[in-house]
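Fold this: MoxR-like ATPase
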Amino acid sequence: MSDLATTVTVIDACGRVAVPVLLLSDPGMGKSSLVRGIAAAEGVPCETVLGSIREPADVAGLPVVTDHGVTLSPPAWAQRLAEAAAGYLFLDELTTCPPAVQAAMLAVALDRVVGDLALPPAVRVVAGANPPDRAADGWEMSPPLANRFCHITFQPSVDDWLDGMTVGWSAPPASRAITADPTRAEAVKALVTGFIRHKPEHLHTFPRTAEGTGGPWPSRRVWAMLAAALANVRDNDAAARQAITFGLVGEGVCVEFLTWCERVDLPDPAAVVDDPSLVDWTDRPDRVWAVLSAVVGWAASAGTAEAWRKAWGPLLAAAEAGAPDVLAAAARPLAQCRPASARVPATVRARFAPVLAAARLSGAGAA
């Protein structure tokens, strides 16, 4: 359960990277008021789509025969958002939507595609739902739809409600989210990939109960969503980090992942590239992998020949310390992201010949 300021932060952090958020609460908690208030505070429109009174074509687009074939004409609400170029799409009462409408919402929720219309990048998707047993003619959410959202339990405090009544619902708390730069984004991605290398059984865990499939659970898709969204909250914002992680991968895996993140304590990849001796390369393999993964991500995001050549330094340092399995796993993606103008350093060619051959770089000239 998140406080109102954390909920606003999660919506903002997820919205910056096109991760849709699902607000779950009892009826009458103010989910729609919050989303409309955020939109009003940002000066953008909010379009509410109530799926229980819609047909699938009202969400996925109405087939129209033209001289060039059949097109899917987007509904008016989607056209208005496209014309505004920004705003919020609020999919309300999601657990009252019949399965056919839920299926139509799959592309809308994550890809923001309505019929043949792609919504602008600045359009954010938020949904609201009551538990199925408390919704009018409630339906369990389908696993594919549930796995497209960051699930947030929404229960504003008494003080939150009093503040809203006093100052108006169009003045929500300020977001604590940040915009991640490429270095931070790659560092967080390294945390996610490092954890999965440490605990590969958590990469995809389909729930064993029907009730569980309607909530957050780990999949390849949500781990990628987590890496993107988590980069937009500060490391010391424990509430937002926990809410996003819990909302995407579920409680048990959330605890394991956040505990592992605290324990692994990754250094800045740029600092490691400048001075590989900052790292104890004889440390735990999962930590060494995470550090090298962050270095590879740093080089890939930089996209320059110089960064690519420098990124081999930590790998060579790790090789001297001895970590063959981890080393090969990090060397492969680094070899594959070589800029066209980059030449393979002679020391790298001697040490990583099999990896370079697999990446078809054995013929690239040495620097």
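The first strand starts at residue 21 and ends at 24. The beta strands are 21-24, 46-50, 62-66, 69-73, 87-92, 113-114, 117-118, 123-129, 150-153.
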